[in-house]
Amino acid sequence: MFLFSKRNRIIKKAVAKTIAAFADRTPKIYQHFFYGAFDIAPQHLVVWYLFESETEMETAKSSGYCDELEKATIRNLINLGYPQEAIGTHNISFTTKEDIDNKTNGDYHLYFQ
After folding, report:
1. Which of 17, 35, 45, 91 shows the smallest number of beta carbons within 10 Å?
2. Which residue has the higher pLDDT, 35 or 1?
3. What is the DSSP secondary structure assignment for residue 20, as one 8-state letter?
4. How many separate domains does the chain show?
5. Model's pTM, two decimal places?
């Protein structure tokens, strides 16, 4: 049986809580995930929120929606026990399915390396 680390569980819960809090907002978050060497050094966490199109992401950025997502994610991480000194807006990123498709023909691995 594969067990996830405590930090992994904190991140999953924090991101799920953030997604749930913004479920009724538009534009919709198309996909989300996280990665990093956060068990070795917690500041290496990266959380990604993807919108479907560039137009949607521009709308989200210009309306302050991306800023709200960043703040909520950070707040949820800290409230669930992630080290506060290791987290900030540099850990939260945004992109689009459209950009991934255009730049790497939909290859997520290539896009995010």
Report:
1. 35
2. 35
3. H
4. 1
5. 0.92
